[in-house]
Design goal:
Structural class: alpha/beta
Number of helices: 12
CATH superfamily of the largest domain: Spore Coat Polysaccharide Biosynthesis Protein SpsA, Chain A
Number of strands: 10
Strand content: 15-25%
Largest sheet: 10 strands, mixed
CATH architecture of the largest domain: Alpha-Beta Complex
Shape: globular
Distance between the termini: 48 Å
CATH topology of the largest domain: Spore Coat Polysaccharide Biosynthesis Protein SpsA, Chain A
Order of helices and strands: EHEHEHEEHEEEHEHHEHHHHH
Length: 323
């Protein structure tokens, strides 16, 4: 079997059929679809059962509510395909999803294939630049470029080789409240040699069904962002990379650390703090994010990092208010 598609399902009765139909209605059969019902109290389980009875290559699993990371890990545990893909039950894929993916995989035998994503509100699209690499140093640079384009912030726009996942025991951290996608994609990238991408949009995110975290107060955001970066540092420490390659991958982590500091500081605007209180909190956040002593080695990252490294509450307060 060539592909395993893992779909975590939770309270998705309004979107699940669209998601599954977008996968199953394509002219491609060398795949298995794994539907994992994560304790949904609605009719999602019944819909999953219908598809499992209709198609021989649809596998339906039920479990107690464990969260999306644990559910995706379960899918990886039982996947049989040479490659693994992930789709969320709120979303759907393009009509040429498997055609484009299989053509690229057959032609280049990549360790990872990365494609573009679109959003149903029509306002944004993440365009993946066309990149192909088989050299480890070049691949590391390309991953850094993809990270700068926000293409490494999701695990949904990638095709992963299952043998790499299993050999290196790559799994999501169920204890990470945010950013588990980022850590997973980054950790996997450390073991990739052959990288293939396309700027074709193969995945559509339904933003009508996403919880609007951007408008909610997240009291523990700074802690969560810090833990995310610690996980990435730990993954880099374990990876068997030579010095030059490791240095390139380290820049992705370093850049993420400083952007995480800004995101945590920006969250303070949702609170009823005075300017003095907010700037004090900003200095505390900067101190924590600088505690690992990570130093940028390129001008662009130095410029981004400087206010954080200076722990300048005034400058960062001005930046987050006028962004």
């Amino acid at each position: 079997m060539k592909y395993s598609v893992v779909v975590p399902v939770y309270n998705a009765e309004n979107t699940l059929r669209r998601c599954v139909d977008s996968i199953m209605n394509q002219n491609f059969t060398d795949m298995q679809l794994i539907l994992i019902n994560d304790g949904s109290p609605d009719n999602s389980g019944k819909i999953c059962e219908e598809y499992a009875k209709k198609y021989d290559n649809v596998l339906y699993i039920e479990q107690e509510n464990s969260g999306v990371s644990a559910t995706r890990n379960k899918g990886m545990d039982i996947a049989e395909g040479e490659y693994i893909l992930f789709v969320d039950s709120d979303d759907y894929v393009s009509d040429d999803y498997f055609e484009v993916i299989d053509n690229a995989v057959s032609a280049h035998n990549p360790d990872v294939f990365i494609f573009s994503m679109a959003y149903t509100d029509g306002n944004r699209e993440k365009i993946c630049p066309k990149i192909y690499s088989t050299d480890k140093i070049t691949t590391a640079n390309k991953f850094y470029e993809l990270s700068n384009n926000s293409m490494m912030n999701s695990m949904l726009n990638k095709v992963y080789r299952r043998s790499i996942i299993e050999e290196n025991k790559i799994r999501l951290n169920p204890n990470l409240p945010i950013g588990e996608d980022v850590v997973y994609a980054y950790t996997y990238s450390l073991y990739v040699t052959v990288l293939e991408t396309t700027d074709k949009c193969l995945y559509i995110v339904d933003e009508d069904n996403t919880d609007s975290l951007s408008r909610k107060r997240r009291d523990s955001l700074a802690d969560s962002m810090y833990e995310l970066n610690v996980d990435m540092c730990n993954a880099l420490d374990k990876a068997p990379l030579d010095k030059k390659v490791r240095k390139i991958y380290a820049q992705t982590v370093i850049r993420g650390v400083y952007f995480g500091a800004y995101s945590s500081c920006r969250e303070l605007l949702k609170y009823d703090y005075t300017a003095k209180q907010r700037r004090k909190k900003i200095r505390e956040i900067c101190k924590r994010f600088c505690s690992r002593g990570l130093k940028p080695d390129c001008l662009r990252t130095w410029i981004i990092a400087l206010p954080v490294r200076l722990k300048s509450g005034f400058i960062i307060d001005f930046m987050i208010k006028h962004r």
